[in-house]
């Protein structure tokens, strides 16, 4: 329900009347990017530029800070100057993981390993969705061009696998390199590389105008992973295959392979199973959710899936039964 002009003005006044020394509204416990969606955006934009964009450009990197940068840039009507985005990119590529330190025995603070993993993943997401799409090769100085063309040498930032779709866009001669990075990340089964790789694959799907535009090698890896029920990443493979089907990137033979795989997957991911290891058990509801979504979309043309659809329509978990579209950008 939309607010009246008077209500918008009252909400803006309530938000911005009390501010702290940093200029942001006091006592809200909200991230800076949120204020770019609320009344008073004109107040928030210069503050966001100073406290987030400039901070990253000056070399400060952290997962919360980068998350704010990524989500905030998506909500700004006008992007910051490209020179600032280039410096943010430089800060990300120059990031070094924190040295190992003793884990808090009480578990109140995350270990340096946890922080490094979160920061690496957020670097990849921020570059892939917010920084590189706003830049062209001509905007990049030579040192950054060299670094981006040799991502495989930045071994301390495995999250950079998320950026390979943009690398392929910027340098068409690096398409095969980008595909090789994705194949290696998926084959590694290492979550630090695996989940960023799926971010890149989703971007490849969005930019593909037809089947020929999408790398066939990646399509084969995903379908084979479903046939083999490979973990970690089975639910993401199912989700990505669902996206590919909706985008018209699968042929009839590939759809048939998926139809044959779905009953086997569901049999392995039953609630009464006892053979799955802990990581796979944690993924069980999400796997069932994407089996249901794929089955629901395929069942009219493949009636042999009707029993699966009927079973999952009565699944005890609402998140499995829910067929509403997911929010943009969810992984």
Q: Which stretches of 5+ consecutive residues score pLDDT under 50?
A: none
State the end-to-end CA separation: 28 Å
Helix percent reads 55-70%
Q: Work out the number of β strands.
A: 0
Indicate the proportion of strand residues. under 5%
Query: Mind describing the biggest β-sheet?
Result: none
Tally of separate helices: 15
**What's the rounded overall pLDDT mean?**
89
Instruction: Give helix and strand order, one letter per element, not per position.
Output: HHHHHHHHHHHHHHH
- Rg over CA atoms, rounded to whole Å, is 22 Å
Per the principal axes of the C-alpha atoms, what is the gross shape?
Answer: globular
Secondary-structure content class: mainly alpha
Summarize the structure.
This protein is 59% helix and 0% strand. The protein has helices at residues 5-16, 41-57, 63-75, 82-93, 112-131, 142-149, 164-170, 175-188, 191-207, 216-228, 234-246, 252-268, 278-298, 306-313, 318-321.
How do the helices and strands line up, and which of them pair or pack?
Blueprint: H1 5-16, H2 41-57, H3 63-75, H4 82-93, H5 112-131, H6 142-149, H7 164-170, H8 175-188, H9 191-207, H10 216-228, H11 234-246, H12 252-268, H13 278-298, H14 306-313, H15 318-321
